[in-house]
Amino acid sequence: MGTKEQLKEERDRIVKGLEETYRKLVIFKKSKKSPMIVVRNGKIVEVDANEILPTTSYKRSAGTLPNS
């Protein structure tokens, strides 16, 4: 397996871990009835955790990493 493949596998594992962490955070915030603090359009805002989906997908923009 080449370096590129290894980096892709590692990146995929990191992304899955971040998605799982986000899912657990939303569940925790809902259980505590605590708002999520997020950045929307460059501003910090509170969002009711019940308005947030417990899943999200990582979407990488084109050109964010060299040689991707």
From TrEMBL:
<protein>
    <submittedName>
        <fullName>Uncharacterized protein</fullName>
    </submittedName>
</protein>
